[in-house]
Amino acid sequence: MKTLPIRLTPGQDLRATLEAAVLAQNCRAAFVLSGIGSLSTAGIRLAGAAQPTRLTESMEILTLSGTVAASGDKTGSHMHMAISTTTGQVLGGHVAPGCIVLTTAEVLLGLLPDWQFTREPDSLTGYDELVIRPRN
């Protein structure tokens, strides 16, 4: 495993930037080891929800974890985060596209250059689930 620290700046999309960073390292599989920061906009898909909840206020990222997968045309990332709002309410769920950095986000990725992550249909769950393959 190789580690990659990243600092995101205002206006960057959290998910898209992490996927691009993994791809730029010629890697297709990574884990989020740590992540904190702030967001101006967040998309979080709550447990059991079909669509993400959209929030547009100052928020703090309390935790960020999950897998980051990048193949150039199809991503299989699966990240969760907990955020706090200006009133101290804490929400958590799946990280959706459109989580925009307010001031900064500090993320430490663990790159797995010998592996490739994808998401493929799983007949047992009915969802696209993680498939782990050695990278050729």
Key features of this structure:
DNA-binding, PPC_dom, mainly beta, DNA binding, 60s Ribosomal Protein L30, Chain: A, 9 strands
Tell me the helix content: under 10%
| Number of helices, where a helix is a run of at least 4 consecutive DSSP H or I residues | 1
- Tally of domains: 1
> Got a strand count?
9
Mean pLDDT: 94
> If you consult CATH, what is the topology?
60s Ribosomal Protein L30, Chain: A
The helix/strand class is mainly beta
Radius of gyration: 15 Å
* N→C terminal distance: 17 Å
Which band does the percent of strand residues land in?
A: over 45%
CATH architecture: 2-Layer Sandwich
Describe the structure in your own words:
This is DNA-binding protein. GO terms for molecular function: DNA binding. Keywords: DNA-binding. The protein is mainly beta. It has one helix and nine strands; from the N terminus they run E-H-E-E-E-E-E-E-E-E. The protein has one helix at residues 14-24, and strands at residues 2-8, 29-45, 53-55, 59-69, 78-84, 90-95, 100-111, 115-121, 128-134. The strands form two sheets. Strands 1, 2, 3, 4, 5, 6 and 7 form a seven-stranded antiparallel beta sheet that branches. Strand 4 and strand 5 (78-84) form a beta hairpin.
